[in-house]
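[agent] plan:
  1. take the single chain provided in the ticket
  2. run structure prediction with default settings
  3. attach structure tokens to the ticket
  4. add a short note for the reviewer (M.T.)
[agent] executing step 1
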Amino acid sequence: IADGRISGNSGCNRITGELRSDETVENSISFHGVAATRMMCPDMETEKNILSALNNVRTYGILENGNLVFFTAGGAAVLELRRNK
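[agent] step 2 finished; step 3 output follows
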């Protein structure tokens, strides 16, 4: 995060991209230039949905259950993440 880059796994494929934040907007976060490997996965629809959601993220928050949630500019939740235990 410190270098403004992300990397991870979208279920099957590896993803990388740029992380940005607007200091004038509370909890601002956005992802740019997100790219993924092109392995064939059993559920390509989930892969497509994750990448699409990341492109629309503008802010984040923490839910009562402790999960991280990402929101669009309009305030719609598009991704909810939980920590693996």
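[agent] step 4 note for reviewer: The chain has a mean pLDDT of 90.
[agent] ticket updated
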